[in-house]
Design brief:
Helix content is 43%, strand content 15%. It is α/β, with parallel strands linked by helices. The strands form two sheets. The protein has a six-stranded parallel sheet with strand order 5-4-1-6-7-8. The longest helix is centred in the middle third of the chain and has 17 residues.
């Protein structure tokens, strides 16, 4: 009989664990100012925050009916990453209640990991700056493996690297990418509705939607994980 490894909960980062929108939008406006563009309304582009610097810059140019060349885009992405990394963690903060959830999970014997499409180095630096790195047995970004979400291998390999049991795993995310990844992996997924999704996350049919981390108690976690084997 195969020895069972520990159950695991895998979190997305931006828009799920940490509200990084203020700093990502500050870096976007820094780039736009350098390019001689108008800065953007944070509310208008907030839904694109979780899709990365490239998409944010492209959407900002489209909103101003401007064309960005591939060379200019590469330059602006480099400028964005430089500004963002130098000002970390800035105004970024953990979402209310998530530390209590992580404490409860750890006390119940669950491993914790991060699976994000943010670069691994930036992810680790952010969590270090917020004093959270020690909680996670794996922090895997878009450049950790040769594939990234929504490829389910990104989630599988994160679980493996963390030492967790993929048959007793739960994903927490805020976007279609997270939900599609978990579904493709056959892993239940809880979607938070306060992140950076372009549409209400309920439209993507996650296992459960929560509006505050107080809703994510151990009873719900165990129910979702056990339902996979039912």
């Amino acid at each position: 009989m195969r020895k069972m490894s520990q159950p695991i909960v895998v979190f997305d980062l931006d828009g799920t664990l940490v509200d990084t929108a203020p700093d990502l939008l500050d870096s976007l406006n820094h780039c736009l100012d350098a390019a001689g563009m108008q800065t953007v309304d944070p509310v208008a582009l907030r839904r694109y925050v979780g899709q990365g610097a490239r998409v944010m810059i492209q959407r900002a140019f489209e909103a101003q009916q401007k064309i960005v060349s591939p060379e200019q885009l590469d330059w602006l992405i480099g400028l964005f990453l430089e500004h963002y990394s130098k000002n970390m963690p800035g105004h970024s903060a953990l979402y209310e209640g998530v530390e209590d959830v992580m404490d409860n999970l750890a006390s119940a014997g669950y491993l914790l990991a991060v699976c994000t499409n943010k670069f691994e180095g930036l992810s680790t630096n952010l969590l270090t700056a917020l004093g959270q790195t020690a909680r996670f047995t794996a922090i895997c970004g878009s450049d950790t493996f040769a594939f990234r979400k929504p490829d389910p291998r990104h989630l599988f390999e994160t679980i493996k690297k963390a030492g967790g049991d993929r048959d007793r795993a739960l994903m927490i995310g805020d976007s279609r990418t997270d939900i599609d990844t978990a579904k493709a992996a056959g892993i239940p997924v809880v979607a938070v509705d306060f992140g950076y999704s372009d549409l209400p996350v309920s439209a993507y049919e996650p296992s459960r939607v929560i509006s505050h981390y107080r809703e994510l108690d151990m009873k719900l976690v165990e129910k979702l994980i056990n339902a996979v084997d039912a």
